[in-house]
Amino acid sequence: MKYALIPLLPFAAFVIIGLFGHWIRERAHWVAVPAVFGSFLLSLSTFDDIAHGNPIHVTLYSWITSGTFDVSIGLYIDRLTAAMLLVVTIVSGLVHVYTIGYMHGEPGYARFFAYVALFTFSMLMLVMADNLLQLYVFWEAVGLCSYLLIGHWYERKTACDAATKAFVVNRVGDFGFGLGVILVFAVFGSLQYDQVFAHAVLLKGQTIDLLKPLGGQWPVGVMTVICLLLFAGAVGKSAQVPLHVWLPDAMEGPTPISALIHAATMVTAGVFMVARLAPLYNLSPVAMGVVAVTGGVTALFAATIALTQNDIKRVVAYSTVSQLGYMMMACGLGAYVAGIYHLLTHGAFKALLFLCCGSVIIALHHEQDMRRMGGLKNKMPITYWTMLIGSLALAGFPLTAGFFSKDEILVSAWSAGFLGKTLAVVGLVTAFMTAFYIFRLLFVAFHGESRVDPHYRWHIDESPPVMTAPLVILAVLSIITGYLGIPEFIRPVLPGPLEMGASHEGLAAAGLMLLATLLGLGGIATAYVFYVKSPELPDRLIQRWREAYALSFNKWYVDEFYDRTIVQPTVALANGLWKFVEVEVIDAMVNGVGAATVVWGLALRLVQSGEVQHYALAMALGAVAILGLYLMLL
To answer: In this predicted structure, what is the pLDDT of residue 583?
Structure first.
């Protein structure tokens, strides 16, 4: 069946490359690229099926059957899934092609393609899942793949540390997610989406007492507890505050995987999960409020950090964190359509921005510091112009895809009461910052005097066609996805408080869109003044606002705070437990056995005289003792 082949083709590529990669090596892309391209064609066909028909539900086989616990491996494809299949396969396919040039000559070339194919398979199975357990399994699978790919250059300590950090931080959120899945089964007796959604409305208003086991009282809505536990996983996967710290460090991995993680796979999983479980979240205003506020805080917080970063990939990484905050904010306000719309358009221009960064990094021999760039506009024209399009889309410039999806979020937020209006203001401020920091990157890297290392300055060339072709395609998608009617296509399967009746029409909506556009243009103009017209101005402002700059540059010292309050105490506790358990208990037991053996041996030496008559006497006494014992028992 073609629907099952969508994820199975990348999985087959993973298996083939994994088994025979030692022999095929530099030809690994001949397996992986056609497999993902085949998945794209099948996804396109599936999209057409869904557009002209009903949702598709296929049960592949019964996975676990034990009493009331019955879970199958199944595929559920509706309009939301169909749209996600396209963005995953398109971005993944272009990343696969781009990787041919970016990773050329790398010793782990085949291994990288194997893991990227596995990553694609895992994300496809995640979005096609028809039950929460399958969702959870592949939720963890994309986490495993991110660990393997972030740490691809495992000989570098920074890459290993970043991979470990991503894995550990996500375990925090996934612990809550796992508890949420267990609670869903405990409450509904099923993990199938359709059964859970059908019975969820019956639990509206019901509460559970969280402190009852401790003898206290704390009644909380059942749906609120379930939704917040599940959202904990989304906070980790989609890098929301306070579990955002892993995503910028993930830049230690090769740039193609950075693009895939940020645009179409791991970090989008959290937003997709909240939208997929909209029937549950709609029943808990408290949980939706938490989602919305978390998203708004994350959008603003990450934007303030992106303003001052110098690593070209970290600027774009913090941009992803911020844009994910926009999406979460929309979903929390009930504007699921706006959130998913931005997810889909963001997938195109964020993949474009990362791959453009990779093009620059390769041309400059893996230099990532913007302060050592400059003057690249004429030397790398395709990279420059495509990155300009991606930057305009991220900044919400009129007529780009980002303009339509960002304004959809802001207008939806403004229509959602006091909280929505407050978060809309946060979104407007973030829009100004977004335009500023992305054009700061563009102007510093591509305009002005060249600050490139003199050894490489005269040898800068445009990237090969295998890398620039995906850039051009993504640049086109960064514009046309705003005109494809995505909101109208996905709206029927994402009912929410806003989509079910609120109107976005009127002067308020038009005024908000105009204000957002002006703020975006203002951010671009400010970046132009700071980094093109008066490049000495930033240094003067840094000296004047040194404390504020230090907060932003050092990422608000969140990593340092976690290190002192969590990492160091945990390491100290582990060392203490190691010394107690390993040395005082295990070693003491082992050494005690040895010492007892020595003492017993010393005691036995006393009866080993070497004289035969002593041994005969001992045997006789032993025989008498045994005989006496026998007679007593009679």
So the answer is: 75
